[in-house]
UniProtKB/TrEMBL annotation:
Protein's organism: Aegilops tauschii subsp. strangulata
InterPro entries referenced in this protein's UniProt entry, alphabetically: Aminotransferase_I/II_large, Asp_trans, NHTrfase_class1_PyrdxlP-BS, PyrdxlP-dep_Trfase, PyrdxlP-dep_Trfase_major, PyrdxlP-dep_Trfase_small
Family: Belongs to the class-I pyridoxal-phosphate-dependent aminotransferase family.
Protein name according to UniProt: Aspartate aminotransferase
Extra remark beyond the main annotation: In eukaryotes there are cytoplasmic, mitochondrial and chloroplastic isozymes.
Reaction(s) this enzyme catalyzes, per UniProt: L-aspartate + 2-oxoglutarate = oxaloacetate + L-glutamate
Top-level taxon: Eukaryota
Start and end residues of each Aminotransferase class I/classII large domain: 3-193
One example GO MF annotation: pyridoxal phosphate binding
Keyword Transport recorded: no
PANTHER family: ASPARTATE AMINOTRANSFERASE, ASPARTATE AMINOTRANSFERASE, MITOCHONDRIAL
Binding partners and assembly: Homodimer.
PROSITE patterns: AA_TRANSFER_CLASS_1
Amino acid sequence: MRSKALLPFFDSAYQGFASGSLDKDAQSVRMFVADGGELLMAQSYAKNMGLYGERVGALSIVCGSADIAVKVESQLKLVIRPMYSNPPLHGASIVATILKDSAMFDEWTLELKAMADRIISMREQLFNALKIRETPGDWSHIIKQIGMFTFTGLNSDQVAFMRQEYHIYMTSDGRISMAGLSSRTVPHLADAIHAAVTKLK
């Protein structure tokens, strides 16, 4: 990135959901900050704090000098003013309260780890269920991917088949929410995927 003079832009929408650790999930961004170069990072609290309706987040920009920072801030103000000028305060106040209170922060990180572990468990259960059914294909991507969603690799015809025959709904490109699964629903999903893959290639 640096040798090609590229400006990295990180999208941190799932911090804490990937591994269960805020620090581990921030490692790549911190590596770029530590090398002294410039970068942009969009950070969202919509998912990891359950604040979807509030759309809470931040854009952080690391500049090479104070002079550049002043110029960047000036340009950002030109963009922000006509878009929203003063953002909603409610969601940001919730996030600030949790981040500033050590007891609340500790509770949040424990809950975040529990959610991440649950999503990882759903991935493992689905992978194992497909393996047990000897579903054609390599399904290792299910346990290699991170976050709340998985691209299954199913095509639009297979997705339509699953919707029609099994009442399972996902985007036409096969993207599903792992957070929406439970140990009770994994077998049904695995049956549907197996049927879709074996009947429609």
